[in-house]
Design a protein that fits this description.
328 residues, alpha/beta, 5-stranded mixed beta sheet, 4-stranded mixed beta sheet, 10 helices, 31% helix, globular
Length: 328
Amino acid sequence: MLDQNFICVKATKHTAKEKAEHTHPVDVVFHYVDPYLNRRILMNMDLKSYSKSSISASPVRTALKSLAQTIDCARSSEEWDRRYNLEAGDREIRGALFVYNHDAEYDKHFYDIFNPKKSGRFEQNERGIRTENLPLEPNMLLHVIDPLMINYMTTIISDADRLHREGSFPETTYRFYYPELRRHRVLVRSDEAPATIEQIAGPFLIIAHDAVTKYDEKSKTLVERYGPGYVIYYNRPGNSYVEFVYLFDCLATWQIPQAGQSLRIRVAHHQPHSDIRSHFQRAIDAYLHDWGFDAAKQAMLEAIELEIIEIEKTTFSKTELGWEKKGK
């Protein structure tokens, strides 16, 4: 169910004066089970679409304040729970502000609006967003999905589809990789683990996949087109070889890849460094030096495929948007 408001159960708290008809908006609710928490996350989304000139601290602050009040109310609302909490088990309601730039012209660092004076990227008289002034209740989480993250997610979807059409990525037999951590264990089946908001917002997203097979009409058999392995979508610019040394350390700890598996790093950052390939090669050399030029490590690192992929951006026709507004 989309765009269905629910009645505020804390009208005295959320409005200047109590209104029986006061409601909170719900654009859409997504849900998934967090692999580490084994808890269903119900993500109450507020979808915003702005032009480049409209993205500033004031509207984002207003949207976050409204979203915080919505989540505060949703956690106590029987109407919200009955409408969206459709499965049994432990659950957590969170809010997510989806900030879409419909003209694809926004070129600033979005999170600078939380500290505009320090960044120097905004007008001197613009007042930044102070999170401590937002009406956040204890244990409440609000996520902000900014324009660059939206482009990153769109790029991953488009690129995975492209790899599938090329025959090097399966249609269904893949899974998002979650390592066993010291303080957190993976509590769900690997093939059921979703891409959580924390994983998407991280520096890289690891996807494990099985071998890609195709039915051969001539031989009437299944043939392997591409072997099993990992695809890593990398969301950092590669400004230094140290970035990749850190990545190699993580992969070694998680034993990725293993014998017979491929490893592809696909850089999906909006501004990759011009010397990113040189930094990557230097990281390999530095890592091998630390390992005493171990032959197995060298073979694994040198087999990694590094690809810088084009960022996907979606735009809407300004003419069409104008007609839509005029018709409303």
